[in-house]
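User: quick one - fold this with L263DTV3 bound?
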Amino acid sequence: MIAAPIGAPEAFGSQILGVLAELPCLTDASIALDRPFMVSNSLPPPPALDTLNEEQSIALFLDFDGTLVDIADTPDSIEVPGDLSQRLGSLHERLEGRLAVVSGRALADLEKHTGELSVARAGSHGSDCRDAGGAAIGAEPKDLAKDTRDSIAEFAEAHGFSLEVKTHGAALHYRSDPTLEHKGLQFAQALAEERGIIVKQGKCVIEFVADEANKASAVRAFMETTLFAGSTPVFIGDDVTDEDGMRAANELGGFGIAVGDRPSENARYGLASPAAVHHWLQL
Ligand SMILES: O=P(O)(O)OC[C@H]1O[C@H](O[C@H]2O[C@H](CO)[C@@H](O)[C@H](O)[C@H]2O)[C@H](O)[C@@H](O)[C@@H]1O
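Assistant: Sure. C-alpha cells for the protein plus L263DTV3:
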C-alpha cells in the first residue's frame, strides 16, 4: 500500500511515500522543507502529569525508542535503565492501569531490552496489542511473505543496509550511511506497489509490514477496553510513526506530546528528550 504523497497533511502519518526526499536521516532532527504543514517543534511543556490526572483520568501511551530510551547507533545498542520495567509498573499503578507502551519493535524484542513488562503494550507498529497480563487485544498480526522477506534481505546485502529481521516485518537501517536513504525509499516504493505491503519511515530506517495496523489503531483498540474507556488519551512520541498515535489521541479528546527536535503536526506539547520524558513522568 502506498499512502498519499507527502504534502497531504490529512493523509500523512506513518506511511510513506510520494516525494523522495534526499536529506540524511530525514526524520532524525528535522523534517524536509517540502512539508510546509509541519509546525516547528517549539512547543510548550505539558502541565504536570498528576495535575492533569486530577482534572481528568489520563490514559498514557508511550513510544519506546527516542521517547523512553535515547536513540543509539544500532537497534541492540540502546541503553535501558535496568529497572525500567519496575518503574513503568509503578506508573501503571499511579494511573490505575491506564498505561500502554506502543512500539515499532516486536514485543519479544522490546522485552528483551526492558525485561518482562507488566503494563499494557503494543508491538510491531500497533499490530500486536496486549493487556497488562499479556492477553491479546484484537486480531493476530499478519506477517510478510517469505519471498518479500527474501527480496528485502537481498536488497540490504547488495546495497549496504543493515537488515533488522522482525517478528512481523523487516527493517532497512541506514544510520551508518544516511546517503542510502533515497535508494532505500525507491526500492521500498517499488516493492510496496508490487507486493501490496506497507512501508513506514522512521529515524534512519525504512520498515516493511503486511498489517494495516498502526499506532492510531493501537490507541483506539486500548481506548475501547473497559479499563481505558472514558479517559483522556495522551500519546508521547518522537518519530513519524508516532504522529498516528497523537492524531488518534487528538480525535479521542486528548493530545500528543512530541519528544525532541522533530517538528510535529499533531502534538500540543513538547519535551526535549527521553530524559525530560522520564522527569515529566516522575519515573
Ligand atoms: O516505535 P519505536 O518504539 O520508537 O520503535 C521504532 C523503531 O526503533 C528502532 O529503530 C530506531 O532506534 C534504533 C536504536 O536507537 C536506531 O539505531 C534506529 O536508527 C532507529 O530507527 C528499532 O530498531 C525498530 O525496529 C523500531 O521499529
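One thing worth noting: The chain has eight helices and twelve strands.
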